[in-house]
């Protein structure tokens, strides 16, 4: 399994935010976390990225503990709500710094190729605070991809994007799926969920309500497999 | 010694009575048994309390650091209850050390404060205790509070020997223990033992209170509320 | 690890050079405090020589705390701190990088304050620059070591800056005492056993607190 979450519980102070979550994501699989506001989706994603420490339970990346060796963080790329770019470094400098922190060989070339991939090569020498929302999302994605991680965690990547940027991002994510990366999104848009996800996990009030194959994924399966599949309820 | 905050039960009351008797015995020994010092007279008797609370202030600090270290290793909030209790009792003892030290200094040298190495160390300890109390009071999350408290306690504990060395060298003298007759030493011993028991009892009580308060808060906050049976409150991606 | 340390230090210094958010305020605060102290210390020269070390190091401490606090506060913008911790880099490396940047900041402060105190008080602080520099380096390491760790604790708890001074000052009492005394002895050209004893205390403080920082930093920054 690419990502395994075992009996994950997280409290912030006295407040229980995640309650004994169990899930497993196979390599190359694309899962979506949905649910109302406050369901714990972002917290679950951050826990899967080992950004926050679980109150109890384990997170494993390809069988290794997520909070074990810090080198294993190379396996994860995360694009969160905040763009995680230093405001006084140019976009190019930010990407080069990220590449160096992740031990990327030839960080400058890598940064340039990613600027091109996200369509921001003209803005490489600008400072992040002047970026539009769409540009910030693209930069955030570039930063998450800088070290070519096999697992990508994306928190509402389409939030605030205009139609063009939305279309571009959908295409990029389809391409990442095609490359066999493991993707975990937080999404609300039902259409996108159908298009991008192999499985849909519904959370509510910190609990995993359901874990089912998305209809779009099911449509591609053989009739025999469709007949065998059943909603996996936590 | 009783485990519960209220200390109900015969054994509990017996324990409290014993502690009260010990404190009374210590005060009686200080007032009646200890000989009157030649130069300072009766004012010198304050040193018997001063030494006892000073020792407890230091002991609580070290205990707080050890309990904090164990919390960091085990992440069991029970150890933080010990640490917090030691912080509060230690702050109290340090405050009393400064007050009794000032009173003694005024009686001995007609000055309310002296940069005597011991008093200076007590002041630094008191400042660190106070800072730790303020730091903890601004944090709601019990585990975050415990982590921060543990780190501050460990930093402080590492600092104490350096403070002692620096203040001794700064004054240019090694502190002389005041000359004490055998009877005075006996009374000092009684006072230190009795007040140590007293403050340890307070620490145990306070720790019990913290533990119970924590349990009550956990029960109030509880887990997640039961899920309501609702339909269509957000997009159902599984429906056709 | 050394390369990542270098890149993190470069990143912080570059950000500061471009934003100029902390250092000017720190230097200005240092100058104002120095002037206030000098104004009050209208004493005969021999008395001034005895107290100038203490005044200097208190000024360095109060102004330097600004830099210590901002070294983490600045990272909190735009989720950069979470980003930094998500890299495959050990917390020890992050601590040492922050420590190094704070040492540089304090060194910049001293480059201004030491000559300023020498001018304001007429005490020959720069007559023997070698020993003064040695004391400054060790003092910087000690303040930065304790201050970086405690700044991480305070900023993780989202507390105010005032709390950092409240925490760091009692902790660095032996260091301020030691640095002040070593400075006084250096001014008096007294490099006997007393001076070496204070220098050893400063070195011991720095070693103990750098070690404590390396061990405890990970606990200070976890969420």
Brief write-up:
Helices cover 74% and strands 0% of the residues of chain B.
Radius of gyration of chain C: 18 Å
**Oligomerization status of the protein chains:** heterotrimer
Query: SSE order of chain B, as H and E?
Result: HHHHHH
Unreliable spans of chain B are: 228-240
Whole-number tally of structural domains of chain C = 1
Question: How would a textbook summarize the main sheet of chain B?
Answer: none
> Residue share in helices of chain B?
over 70%
Rg of chain B, Å, rounded: 24 Å
Strand content of chain C: under 5%
Report on the biggest sheet of chain C: none
- List low-confidence stretches of chain C: none
**DSSP helical segment count of chain B:** 6
Please tell me the overall pLDDT of chain C.
88
Cα end-to-end separation of chain C: 23 Å
End-to-end span of chain B in angstroms?
67 Å
Secondary structure class of chain C reads: mainly alpha
List keywords for this structure.
heterotrimer, B: disordered C terminus, C: 223 residues, mainly alpha, globular
How would you characterize this protein structure?
- The complex is a heterotrimer of chains A (234), B (240) and C (223).
- Chain A has 234 residues and is α/β, with parallel strands linked by helices.
- Chain A is built from eight helices and ten strands.
- In chain A, strands 6-7-8-3-9-10 form a six-stranded mixed beta sheet. In chain A, strands 2-1-4-5 form a four-stranded antiparallel beta sheet, covered by helices on one side.
- In chain A, helix 2 (91-101) crosses helix 3 (107-117) and helix 3 crosses helix 4 (133-145).
- Mean pLDDT of chain A is 84; it is low at 228-234.
- Chain B has one domain.
- In chain B, 38% of the residues are buried.
- In chain B, helix 3 (77-109) packs antiparallel against helix 4 (117-137) and helix 3 (77-109) runs parallel beside helix 5.
- With 240 residues, chain B is mainly alpha-helical.
- Chain B is globular.
- Helix content of chain B is 74%, strand content 0%.
- Chain B has helices at residues 10-33, 46-74, 77-109, 117-137, 142-171, 182-221.
- With 223 residues, chain C is mainly alpha-helical.
- Chain C has one domain (2-221).
- Helix content of chain C is 83%, strand content 0%.
- Chain C is built from nine helices and no strands.
- Chain C has helices at residues 2-19, 23-40, 45-73, 80-86, 91-121, 129-156, 161-171, 173-187, 193-221.
- In chain C, helix 3 (45-73) runs antiparallel to helix 5 (91-121), helix 5 crosses helix 9 and helix 8 (173-187) packs antiparallel against helix 9 (193-221).
- Classes of the chains: A alpha/beta (234), B mainly alpha (240), C mainly alpha (223).
- Chains in contact: A-B, A-C, B-C.
- The interface between A and B is medium-sized, with 27 and 20 residues.
